[in-house]
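Quick question: who can interpret this fold?

. . .
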Amino acid sequence: MTGGSPEVSVVLVSWNRREDLRIALDSLYEQSAVDFEIIAVDNGSTDGTIEMLKSEPREIHVIENGRNLGACWGKNQGILAASAPFLVFMDSDAKLISPDTLKTVLDRMKSDPGLTALGCPIYWNEELTSPWVFGIHLTDDLYIEWEKTRTLGLGADALSTCFMMIRTEKAREIGGFDPFYFYQHEDLDLFVRLKKDGGRFDVLDGPPVWHRISQVGRKVDRWFWMHFREEWRHQYLLIKNMGPLKGAYYIARNWWDGHRMRDYYVRPIRFRKFVVLFGLLPVFMLLLSPFILWQGSKNYLQDPKLKSTPNPKNP
């Protein structure tokens, strides 16, 4: 794992996923030819996760939060705690299939100094026949284009923090993840900001990563609330990164040309739901635009509460 100064800091944020985290850690322990440290951020788990982490024979940097502060907050804690020049974000329900994953990604990052971040193909299933995310591609109004996102060889507008590597310096310069998202869309937001700052991203053809999509700790809603949760985050992302006027234009465009929205949500959106998501919700979000723009001006890593978070380390 680590024999000297680590080259890579691997950050995993978890909430009540002890068994999933166990599988993720085991796949990390199998990684070869790379010195790396593991930073595990626990968001107030009650399933024995902390006890498991502290009983590990291998050294793990454990950050304990007394309650669920969200994936964004935990990732920001990991950014601040990292001691290596390269950062890997990995979901607690992900599994690295090849023991050469970290080495392959690190070698490419080292060979291309202008590359900001790099990902691997991520699959739904262990057989690696069902793509989940390769390189994320975005429409002009920041919806995910699923067909291109699940096609290799097209580069990337963004990468999934299910598994990706980024230069630690760049993650800190850009200010980390916006905790207002809590979870979901925070990776899109990060990469939109990185791209504005001149960032460049890519995806390798392999090795693959298996995203096991654990249902433990994952919010399961009826379709309306799932769409509502997705769409307020999307509108927040749009207004924050493009401004209220351009954001309002793109949101209104769905009334006469909604194919981007329909392609993203896949399932049909009935008229009453459409009115709520693209009529009432945008009014509320646009009224919030001064707050959204203020939130977008922050460096999230400079939050004094974040810096004062306890940061214990396993003996």
